[in-house]
Amino acid sequence: MGGVAEKNEANMGRGSVNKAIVLGNLGQDPDVRSTSSGQMVVNVSLATNRTWTGKDGQRKEETEWHRIVAFGKLAEIIEQYLKKGDQAYFEGRLPPKS
User: Fold this and answer.
1) pLDDT tens for residues 27-61?
2) pTM across the whole model
3) Does domain 19-89 have CATH number 1.25.40.10?
4) CA distance 15 to 84
5) Per-domain residue ranges for the chain?
6) CB under 8 Å, gap of 24 or more: what pairs does 47-55 form?
7) pLDDT in tens, 2-33
8) For a tag on the chain, would you pick the N or C end, based on fewer CB atoms within 10 A?
9) Dihedral of CA 75/78/84/85: which sign?
């Protein structure tokens, strides 16, 4: 047939994916700025929690912080609707470590 699904399956071993999904709570209000060209940029600190039971049987919890950066229209939407403590879902790519 040669459909899209078949082509994707054939390339699965050769390709790669850089996709992240994060659901958490804002640790502070969004930090809004503009680039020198006037494009809006927003930085968000997002907290996620993980819980587990330790070897001692006690429940343990750890908070991890994620820095989210958005540009343009998405930055405007974040500024308008999100504030500290709000739950938010972000989907995007992970930048390479420098």
Assistant:
1) 999 999 999 999 999 999 999 999 999 999 999 99
2) 0.74
3) no
4) 38
5) 19-89
6) 48/22, 48/23, 48/24, 49/24
7) 555 555 555 556 789 999 999 999 999 999 99
8) C
9) negative
